[in-house]
Specification:
Two copies of one chain form a homodimer. Chain A has 430 residues and is of the alpha/beta class. Chain A has 16 helices and 13 strands. Chain A starts with a strand and ends in a 5-residue tail after the last helix.
Chain lengths: 430, 430
């Protein structure tokens, strides 16, 4: 299965008639562009896009920008409904099996992954994220669609607008198109007694109103939290703040802009700590709360890059080192205290080094591969919070001693845990 | 092709009759174990091992230790020669195509990789690493073996003892075995007009004398230098020293023992630097020369592990930080000089962090992916050497300033180079 047919010939949305719905941005990415990107991640690389004469040019612009392998089919008579659009795509689908979906539906990554393993119409019995009074109902029995429609009384799920079809569906479409003027995909599904597969509870929605749009943005941002490396402070405080921000900025700024904003906040905190550890510590914690935003909006808008992950990780180290150095300079330590400062600086960097270097060797996230690592305290969010608390209390010497102990102990435990897990992961490097 | 037949029924070696030749250790690994490991790396996982009654038990011990999927065939009459041994393997080879090789031959990784792409007898026209007066000569013409033997006058290559054969060879073997008492593989090759493929100049040898053994060890250790991350000091000095040592210890110590010995030398150098930067600097450079040994003997004995690479990298950071911290403590700096020390410590760690973290993001070596990185000065071998020189001259303050500048400049250039290459490597993280 390499081909997807995406129906984009419907008329503008209720919220803004001037933008075709497939081009509405949700969480930093146009709906159509999101669907294409997600399908590509599952090796569906050819797209047959059915458009109407009005939105043709703008949709083609987007397809070109995406570098997609696409065929554009213009439905000159969109009033004949989306079943007619599907019918028009028939000559451009050469695979026996193909995906059919709607250009105005937003799907999560998990939905797509599960849906692609199904057959026929993908039905959701829960439909947690849509206005169920507006949704199309489906009665699915013995693995086939028995009935479908907005008004039907007996039903056990909702039409997700996502299908895995075989080319035989075009015969059904052809027959219906020859018989009547308006043909919907629902008509074809019903007439063809298409198979159906339940995929329950994953995020998907069509976007019809401003409320739909906001709900979708919120859900996509929330689903973007990776979180395996999150410490307790992150879970309780930082993520909440960063998600609140991400929801509000995801359509406005790029992940890289968020990375730099966080970095600059961190550098400013170090600069201020030279004069006032209290104020510096507070801003340091602010930068730590901002730190999640870049990753969240990158994942929500499907724009994560390797470079982004790399530079983000490096800039975090710069901020940590700069802040602790500034504190040490504020302290103006005697030679006797210097070893504690060195140990704290070293341990702070090495907590990250040991974890990140693990991926260099194993090509796998340390927290995924060696699960007990998750329960070690001393992750960045926890360290920054600790630093802030000690700064507010004015206990700067104590801070260095505590940091020196916690971080280096954590490094030693990391080495021990990786060593004790190595039997499970070890094999000669090929 | 999943099966290899390895002939191990020959009599003991000239050098030490008490150890069967396949069990002689060369560069930290028994000859047979090396061949099995290398073939496994190319997905050849089934082994048919032909032994004689005397060495049967000891060879089976090794096969068990290796966890190999093996079938043992005992040649009760090894005096009938190795062609008879091959004949005995016939019932255990089910694949149409299979590898045939000799239990007393040592091959390099590159030889095996190229040989496996060939057909028939693998012939080497150069035979750079064997005693050519003793080697079996081959005349290869129109892709077939025309003549083979030690004494033949007309020849264009040497028999490497490595073959890619089809099962049809057993018919030829059967016929010869029924006709005469002694049958060599050469007899079968000649009678069957087996195909031949040239693989020139790679390392392979049979091991017959103590000199063969030492030459083989040396070559395997030399071939083990990875070197993409080597700076100029490493190429001119450190590698020469570490190879000299590796050749001598590869059969005696494990890679992990070498790692720890290097680490302890490094820590000792830091300890001494607290009192004498001169002496400390010298020992620091010694630890840097030792630093190549663990990797060299690990690769030469095919025992590289992910954990080994990981821990080695971490211990290097500990030594670097410990040494510079010790120097700083020796200096007992005033508050005004502290920023230089912090910058030098930070830059030194971050040179490694940026490079190693690259692999975490890209699953590829930074020096392979972003080639200009190779030409940046400030790699570890160069830094350590610089530290030693400044220590010997007693220029400790100048050292911190130079290190602070070089390392942080290198970090900035690394970020720039990775950024400017990102178009080439970037893609959404799947």
């Amino acid at each position: 299965m390499r081909t997807a047919v995406i129906l984009c010939a419907g008329r503008g949305s209720r919220m803004n008639a001037s933008i075709p719905k497939p081009l509405v941005r949700v969480a930093g990415r146009e709906i159509l562009s999101r669907t294409i990107e997600l399908l590509r991640r599952h090796r569906i690389e050819r797209f047959v896009i059915v458009v109407n004469p009005e939105n043709k040019d703008r949709i083609e612009d987007l397809l070109r920008r995406e570098g997609a392998d696409y065929t554009l089919v213009v439905n000159e008579r969109p009033e004949r409904e989306n079943g007619y659009s599907l019918y028009l795509a028939r000559e451009h689908v050469t695979d026996r099996e193909f995906v059919l979906t709607m250009g105005d539906h937003v799907y999560s990554e998990d939905f797509i992954a599960r849906a692609l393993k199904g057959k026929g119409l993908i039905v959701d019995d829960l439909a947690l994220y849509v206005d169920r009074t507006e949704a199309t109902r489906v009665l699915c029995g013995k693995g086939r669609v028995k009935d479908i429609g907005k008004g039907i009384e007996k039903f056990n799920g909702y039409d997700t607008g996502f299908f895995i079809l075989t080319r035989s569906v075009f015969k059904v479409a052809e027959k219906l198109v020859s018989e009547r003027e308006k043909v919907t995909v629902s008509d074809i599904v019903k007439a063809g007694r298409i198979r159906c597969t339940f995929v329950s509870g994953e995020f998907w929605t069509d976007v019809d109103t401003r409320e739909d749009l906001e709900r979708a943005r919120k859900e996509l941002v929330r689903a973007s939290v990776k979180g395996v490396g999150d410490g307790v402070v992150s879970r309780l405080i930082n993520r909440k703040v960063s998600l609140w921000i991400s929801e509000r900025v995801v359509d406005r700024i790029t992940p890289m802009q968020a990375t730099w904003a966080t970095f600059i906040t961190g550098l400013v905190s170090a600069l201020i700590a030279l004069f006032s550890p209290q104020m510096g510590g507070l801003i340091y914690q602010v930068s730590s709360m901002l730190d999640g935003v870049d990753g969240e909006i990158a994942r929500a808008s499907l724009r994560t890059t390797r470079f982004g992950g790399w530079i983000d990780s490096i800039l975090d180290r710069v901020v940590d080192f700069a802040f602790l150095s500034a504190l040490a300079l504020w302290l103006g330590p005697g030679a006797g205290f210097l070893p504690w400062i060195f140990l704290a600086l070293f341990g702070t960097l090495m907590v990250s080094y040991t974890t990140e270097r693990f991926r260099g060797s194993y090509c796998e996230d340390a927290y995924e591969a060696v699960r007990p690592l998750r329960y070690l305290v001393g992750k960045r969010d926890e360290r920054v919070f600790l630093v802030m608390v000690f700064c507010l209390l004015g206990w700067i010497e104590a801070l260095f001693i505590v940091l020196a102990l916690i971080t280096n102990l954590r490094v030693i435990l990391t080495v021990y845990l990786v060593w004790s897990h190595k039997g499970k992961y070890e094999q000669a490097l090929r």
